[in-house]
Amino acid sequence: PDTSQQCSGTGWSDWVEEGSLGRGVSAHNSSSPYSCQASCGESYAILRRQCMTPGRCEGPEMKVVACSLPPCPAGTWSDWIPSEHCSVQCGKGYRRMRRTCVNTTEGGNGCEGPMLRLEPCQGPGPCPVPGRCEQPPQLVDGFS
């Protein structure tokens, strides 16, 4: 019998790709040696090997290797959308402005910059005349 195979090297088979996992954008990437689950972002290949010669196999049976993928592109912001109310009933106040991060890809970097901002506004009603006994301006309900 030929025993040269049993006496040389390790007792392991070659590594075989078993699957992938990640949070990048799904698509095969030809720049990676593995069939990664993504074309950008974080993705990993799961490799497994079998012990062909018991007693000669040291190390793990399975390993996870990172795929070499470029980062996913950042998203873009929608237009600013004002809240319905100014923060005061009269005089100078502020209105909340909100925008949404759009055109993002799973695993992408999101959008850079703030999602909320304050913009000066004028309250809808007239302010009391100084020196008269009237209530001071009140905050509009629901504004916090």
Characterization of this structure:
The structure is a single chain. By secondary structure, this protein is an all-beta fold. The protein contains one helix and ten strands. The strands form four sheets. Strands 1-4-5 form a three-stranded antiparallel beta sheet, with no helix packed on it. The protein has a three-stranded antiparallel beta sheet with strand order 7-8-10, with no helix packed on it. Strands 2-3 form a two-stranded antiparallel ribbon. The termini are far apart. Residues 1-7 and 24-30 have low confidence and may be disordered.
Low-confidence stretches: 1-7, 24-30
Q: If you compute it from the alpha carbons, what radius of gyration comes out, rounded to the nearest whole angstrom?
A: 31 Å
Strand order of the largest sheet: 1-4-5
- The class by helix and strand makeup works out as mainly beta
What is the distance, rounded to the nearest whole angstrom, between the alpha carbons of the first and last residues?
84 Å
User: How many strands in all?
Assistant: 10
Question: What is the share of helical residues?
Answer: under 10%
N to C succession of SSEs: HEEEEEEEEEE
